[in-house]
Design goal:
Blueprint (H helix, E strand, L loop, with lengths): L5 E9 L9 H13 L4 E10 L10 H14 L3 E4 L5 H11 L2 E4 H12 L3 H18 L6 H6 L10 H37 L5 E6 L5 H9 L16 E6 L5 E6 L12 H7 L1 H4 L3 E7 L5 H15 L3 H5 L2 E5 L6 H12 L4 E3 L8 H12 L3 E8 L4 H9 L3 E7 L2 E9 H8 L2
Parallel strand pairs: 1-2, 1-3, 3-4, 5-7, 5-8, 8-9, 9-10
Antiparallel strand pairs: 6-7, 11-13, 12-13
Helix pairs in contact: 4-5, 5-7
């Protein structure tokens, strides 16, 4: 068994930053959780106040030297800086501290690389990682890459090596994009097939570790990885379930969101979240017990907006206030009172099951669509269309006429569009 990598985690706190969503201590705690998701041994954690960012090293020279001595004393192998470092800052800090340095983007990319399970997920993460490396052309953090069999080390001394690296990375990016285009075509076929299924899609979204997979498992009985760990679910999982009233739906569990999502991963998120873009109802799962629950919720809304979730979808969203079991009784009663007054809020505990019945009721109400009653004419030769109507219990009555079947149907706008596509 390989020895754990010893890591220090720093959160740079820029003094005077306007309207910070999170307390620095909470931001540091999240960064530590991210590091722990990679099974690193955390030797020290620190919020580092910065009055003015240093263009070359981010921190002031005195602070850099102070930290160097601390890292040397703790025998640190890796320093994680919970912020965005320029390539120059990363290189300079590595030279000063004599350790590998990862910024927030690099750390999240490592976690995604460690979690991706499907072929598309792996390709998307590799593409994001290569794009990130190309902008840096520095020696990448390869300990975990060797474990998961990804690309080896890039970078090296001298201009010739850098040019060689640039060409190698560009070639690899081109190969992955070619492979991804084939995967995208296959996924488009799968989506087209799903759109013919007359079941509404209910998508679970939320900040990472909010409890989406726990709710998914309780609703479906599936065995999705369910841990108190950031990014426990990376690739989407879908299951057909039946609500207590008999309505059938497709439930989709998705990757957790996070603040300051690396731009290299936005494309990967967009591909992974197509089920959300197609969803009839979105369940926004929140860890209501978390100190930063409001900030996390706003991050989710911001990312959904950037990914193209339309306003009407946001209006149809239900907020699921999860982890109610971690609240004291007074706070819980207050939350449940607020939720009882709104069809768009459900308070529950995926751990104990409290509130699940109410969630099912609100999902059913949220999926209710205006029903149209219409007369249509189906030619005798179009038996497939007629069979589809009967299979989905949409026929009120039918009469045979000279030119075909005159059918009275009762359906939603979505079902009508599905019928038109047959």
């Amino acid at each position: 068994m390989s020895e754990q990598i010893r890591a220090a985690v720093l959160h740079p706190n820029l003094k005077g930053r306007v309207q910070q969503r999170r307390l620095p201590e909470n931001a540091l705690a999240e960064a530590v959780s991210l590091a722990e998701a990679l099974d690193l041994e955390i030797t020290s954690t620190l919020v580092v106040p910065i009055s003015k960012p240093n263009a070359g090293e981010l921190f002031g020279s005195g602070k850099v030297e102070e930290l160097r001595a601390a890292f040397e004393a703790d025998e640190v192998d890796l320093v994680i800086v919970d912020g965005l470092l320029s390539p120059i800052q990363q290189r300079n800090l590595e030279e000063r501290w004599k350790v590998k340095v990862l910024d927030r983007t690099g750390l999240i990319l490592e976690i995604f690389g460690d979690r991706a399970a499907t072929r598309e997920g792996v390709l998307q993460v590799d593409l994001a990682h290569l794009t990130y490396q190309k902008s840096r052309l520095v020696r990448s953090w390869t300990h975990l890459e060797r474990q998961r069999g990804a690309m080896g080390t890039v970078g090296g001394p001298g201009e010739t090596q850098i040019e060689s690296d640039r060409r190698a990375i560009s070639d690899a990016i081109l190969r992955i994009k070619t492979q991804l285009s084939k995967v995208v075509k296959t996924r488009a076929l799968h989506r087209a097939a799903r759109q013919k299924i007359p079941y509404p899609i209910v998508a679970l979204v939320g900040y990472t570790n909010a409890g989406k997979s726990s709710i998914f498992n309780r609703m479906t009985g599936a065995n999705v990885l369910e841990k108190d760990m950031l990014f426990a679910t990376l690739d989407p999982t879908m299951r057909a379930i039946e609500l207590p009233n008999g309505r059938k739906v497709i439930l989709s569990d998705t990757v957790g969101f996070i603040s300051n999502l690396p731009t290299q991963l936005v494309a990967a998120f967009r591909a992974t979240l197509e089920e959300v873009l197609d969803a009839d109802l979105i369940l926004h799962v929140r860890d209501i017990s978390h100190a930063d629950t409001e900030a996390q919720a706003q991050d989710v809304r911001d990312i959904l907006g950037s990914l193209g979730v339309k306003d009407e979808q946001s209006d149809g969203m239900i907020e699921v206030w999860n982890k109610a079991d971690l609240l004291d009784e007074d706070a819980l009663q207050g939350m449940e009172t607020v939720a009882a007054r709104s069809p768009k809020i459900a308070t529950l505990s995926a751990l104990t099951g409290r509130g699940m019945d109410t969630l099912f009721e609100k999902i059913d109400a949220g999926l209710a669509e205006p029903v149209l009653q219409e007369d249509i004419l189906i030619p005798y030769e179009n038996g497939k269309a007629r069979a589809w109507l009967f299979t989905n219990n949409l026929v009120i009555e039918e009469e045979a006429h000279e030119e075909g079947y005159k059918v009275q149907v009762k359906w939603t706008e979505k079902q009508k569009n599905q019928f038109a596509a047959i």
